[in-house]
Amino acid sequence: MSSNLILFNKPFRVLSQFSAEGDKSTLAAYIEAPDFYPAGRLDFDSEGLLLLTDRGALQHVIASPDFKLPKTYWAQVEGEISDSALAQLKQGVELKDGLTKPAQAERMTAPDIWNRIPAVRHRENIPTSWVSLEIREGKNRQVRRMTAAVGFPTLRLIRYAIGPYTLENTPVGQWNYIEPTETLLKEVTQFEEQRKRKISSPNRRSVSEKRPTVPHDKGMARRPTRPKSTSRTHRK
């Protein structure tokens, strides 16, 4: 039975949209679900978890940083990541658009996952390592910029989780309907109620508060009438 939420494991080099853009692969090649759209984005060159919904309020709650759903990424980086680099990621990294919020960062063993096509280029003299990063904000290409800023460029990036949802048991390129959690539904209900209150609240003063109408002959100077000319030349 369908629901308002879809979980998709996005492959490498697939756009997070249904509309065509040049010769790039899009969601249309994988998902047939009318009126469903991504709740947030995942970069063309990143892989992993993407949530889609046909409910506007649900899309807003998932995608907006205001609701602070944590997002967990697995990053394969160039070099053996150091303790000092992990400490910087945990404290916050200074990027061109500001300081990132503290993240949860830790080393991890190479995950047992699908092979990327094309594969990450292997260099004999340069090792790689994996780090798990949990962030609660959404700066553009944030994880890649964070790891590069601490000296360990990202070679492969996989989003493993958004809030309580993970890639567990969802092969790459596959999708399925999932049920929103009670917590998520509660946030959606609260958001919808707040939006209704804003719409119903008057933007103008009520009729009783409006300025009373004053007759032209009391308290207001009447505009003097201009005498009509007896003749007027008309242009042709």
UniProtKB/TrEMBL annotation:
Belongs to the pseudouridine synthase RsuA family. It holds the Pfam family PseudoU_synth_2. It comes from the Bacteria. It is an enzyme of class 5 (isomerase). Its EC number is 5.4.99.-. InterPro entries: PsdUridine_s_RsuA/RluB/E/F_cat, PsdUridine_synth_cat_dom_sf, PsdUridine_synth_RsuA/RluA, PsdUridine_synth_RsuA/RluB/E/F, PsdUridine_synth_RsuA/RluB_CS, RsuA_PseudoU_synthase, TruA/RsuA/RluB/E/F_N. Gene3D superfamilies: Alpha-L RNA-binding motif, Pseudouridine synthase I, catalytic domain, N-terminal subdomain. Keywords: Isomerase. This is Pseudouridine synthase. Residues 221-236 have a biased composition (Basic residues). It comes from Marinomonas primoryensis. Residues 4-149 form the Pseudouridine synthase RsuA/RluA-like domain.
